[in-house]
Amino acid sequence: MPDSLDRARTPLLALITQEALDRDYQVAASRAALTGDAGSRPGVARGYRVAVVVVVGLFAMLVTVAGVQTSQNADVDDASRASLIERIETRRATVRRLQEDLAGLRAANAAAEESLRSLGRRYADARARRTQLGALTGFGPVTGSGVRVTLDNPSYAGADEQVRDSDLALLVDGLWDAGAEAISINGQRLNARGGIRNVGEAVEVNGVGVAPPFTVLAIGDRRTLASKFVDTQAGLRFLAVARQYGFEHRMDNADKLKLPAAPGALRQLRSAEYAQERPQGQGGEAP
Q1: CATH 3.30.70.1880 applies to domain 140-262
Q2: Which H or E run includes 249?
Q3: 179 pLDDT exceeds 90?
Q4: Residues 6+ apart with CB under 8 A from 75
Q5: Domain boundaries, the chain
């Protein structure tokens, strides 16, 4: 039992050296017993002892070098492990930062998409409003049902018996009063900026010359447009003038008419300027 405690308390390097030395002594003793020369040849025994000591010393030196090398390798391994842990933590911090950046970019992208959808809706509303205003003002093309009126001079008409701008104006006014929503004459759309006038014997609409036969297209309720036309004062006056001068005219219902937009040149204001509205509560009316 004491031998076991002493063995447990002995350092590992000393224990290995001691056991190796004991074994070497045992080997030497065995060889001496076999040869029978251990007692008679003291020089040989001494040589064995020296050899054993040298071998044990070399073994101890190898064990020491191995221990030192192992310790150095352990230090290197510890340094490498610490460096590896530091790199892992750095990479984790980088990944967390990139994930935060990604979350921010996703939020910004979602906000941009919502803004784009909102702008798209506003743009669609603006286009619809523009189309509606164009139809109301005559600066946008329109389609619909209505009536088609053809008007021509009589074959025997002289210079004073031809269709004049005033005659076309009576026809157009009667159609407006009957409920027409859009009117064109020979492809020229009528609106508040245009007009019908005579230049010599020629008739101009929107500053563009038109010649008979005249084709007047009017979009409106085709079920009532023709009947209401004859009930208007302008319509009655036109019919009276047509009978007086023998104008050839005819009004037919049409299921689908297509009227162009008024010339874009009519949009330009020459004398008037667009007035900016003042916010309420900041002064009186604009002069």
Answers
A1: yes
A2: strand 248-259
A3: yes
A4: none
A5: 1-137, 140-262
